UniProtKB/TrEMBL annotation:
Keywords: Membrane, Transmembrane, Transmembrane helix. Pfam families: MFS_2. SUPFAM superfamilies: MFS general substrate transporter. The chain crosses the membrane at residues 12-29, 35-53, 60-82, 88-110, 175-199. This is Rhamnogalacturonide transporter RhiT. It comes from Melissococcus plutonius (strain ATCC 35311 / DSM 29964 / CIP 104052 / LMG 20360 / NCIMB 702443).
Length: 260
């Protein structure tokens, strides 16, 4: 989910100005104005994320945000297909809708992050927020660099000429393909991952209660329903939770795990 939403936005941002200037033949001023609309909409998108994610399943809000972003991109694609019409109203509307989706998508992964160390604590018995924050930041920077690099290669291969006021048809088509297929590919990847995301408000509360029980009694035995629910979150049977595994220390096996 994290990679899907952020890489898709990296790809979109990398080619959007080119799309407006070269594919639609507008000026850089128009592109700047549309980017401003998107940025303003992102603020409202973040607010949507803030007020909805605590009330609904984060995966549902994620998919809703992807839908908004996708609708905006489809609007840009429609504008590309009607070259003889006045497209500014459609571009502005598409920019605002896509901005709502992008704003919410930017907020959701970092909101979810705050709960992931709780899942990890149930597995390892340790608090490792710093490690997760470091991994997320490193992954974000790395994938952003790779995405920008690959987009540059594709544009160069299509015949893109730097500082040219007009690009060839192959370049403009490549820009459109990158902005649509490239962006949609990673959005779809994120949506697929969201269907496997089981952490909700209710399951997180159950998770916290179980962690508290383990802190009081490391040999705590949960009921079958709780064990089944938490296995969906952690991927581990209850006898391997709370450090009874080799997640941190390779080869570690506790007496409890051996007995099972």
């Amino acid at each position: 989910m994290y990679l899907g939403c952020y890489i898709s936005q990296d790809i979109f941002s990398q080619v959007f100005t080119y799309f407006i200037v070269f594919s639609l033949a507008y000026t850089a001023v128009v592109a700047s104005n549309l980017l401003s609309i998107i940025s303003i909409a992102c603020i409202f998108g973040v607010l949507i994320g803030i007020f909805t994610i605590s009330r609904f399943n984060p995966a549902i809000i994620y998919r809703f945000s992807v839908a908004l972003f996708s609708i905006g991109i489809l609007g840009f694609l429609i504008a590309y297909g009607i070259p003889n019409a006045n497209r500014l109203w459609l571009l502005s509307l598409s920019g605002f809708v896509s901005g709502l989706g992008r704003g919410a998508l930017a907020y959701i992964p970092w909101n979810i992050y705050s709960f992931i160390p709780d899942v990890d604590e149930l597995v390892t018995g340790k608090r490792r927020e710093g490690i997760f924050a470091g991994i997320m930041t490193f992954t974000r920077k790395s994938t952003q660099a790779v995405a920008v690099f690959l987009v540059g290669i594709l544009l160069d291969h299509s015949g893109f000429i730097a500082k040219a006021s007009v690009q060839s048809a192959s370049v403009t088509h490549t820009i459109v393909l990158i902005m649509t297929i490239g962006t949609f590919s990673f959005l779809i990847m994120g949506v697929i991952a969201s269907f496997k995301f089981c952490l909700t408000k209710e399951t997180h509360q159950l998770l916290i209660e179980t962690i508290e029980e383990f802190r009081k009694n490391p040999t705590y035995q949960m009921d079958e329903q709780t064990a089944t629910c938490l296995k969906q979150l952690t991927g581990w049977d209850q006898q391997y939770l709370w450090g009874n595994n080799n997640v941190i220390f390779k080869g570690k096996t506790t007496e409890k795990a051996e007995q099972n």
